[in-house]
Amino acid sequence: MNLLKGLVIAFSMYSKIPMPRMEWKKESMKYFLCFFPLIGLVIGGLSLAWMHLACLCGFGDIFRTAILVLIPTVVTGGIHLDGLLDTADALSSYKPMEEKLEILKDSHAGAFAIIVGISYFILYFGILSEADSAAVMVLAPGFVLSRALSGLAMVSFKMAKNTGLAATFSDMAVKGRVRVVMAICVLVCVLGMIALSPVEGAAGAAGALLTFAYYRRMSYQKFGGITGDLAGFFLQVCELVMAVCVVLTHSFLV
After folding, report:
1. Total of domains in the chain
2. Among 223, 220, 232, which residue's Cα sits nearest to residue 36?
3. What is the pLDDT of residue 98?
4. Average predicted confidence (pLDDT) for the chain
5. Is 11 within a domain?
6. CA 29 to CA 45: how far, in whole Å?
């Protein structure tokens, strides 16, 4: 029963998919991070379904790509994009660590957040406009991989502060077991991407793992650890990097 509650809480927190109301008790939160990657499974499935429908109906590249870009945001409600924008403001401030952490908590969007947000969508749109059905097939497991890596970080990396949702979720999780589940999920996704297309899949997986290493290094150096906003930043950057790696590799091979 607690596992089912954990599933509901994960989807309630990290997606806009309607879920029954559930009280967030410690027992229900122990394993909820294990279900976080399933939201990526929904996004990947919808992306594949849309590509199939777009090809079937003969939709143009611009309309096809626009929906592809929007699917993750519609499913998640933009919760991870918020982290990307807040982190952009903090990193662009060049202020001491304590002030960077304060900027992360500021609900107002600064100039650099807007610049990074626009640039992100332009680049994401551009790279996905070059993606065919085969490339999107390889990228679909990437939505699961990015969330598995994010969940792994949540129970493995140092927290920048003892307050906030990320710290709360990390404290409530049974870290050892969640870590094992996330590691298995990462391995399955990497092997799945490579099985779908050895070269493109390996490139995408390598991009995700390098972004994960950068995430840890940057978070520790600039913020003293990770936060919920930094987790959102990682997830968005990870998915963009995977798309760039897969599509560019596919273009070189064709």
Report:
1. 1
2. 232
3. 83
4. 89
5. no
6. 26
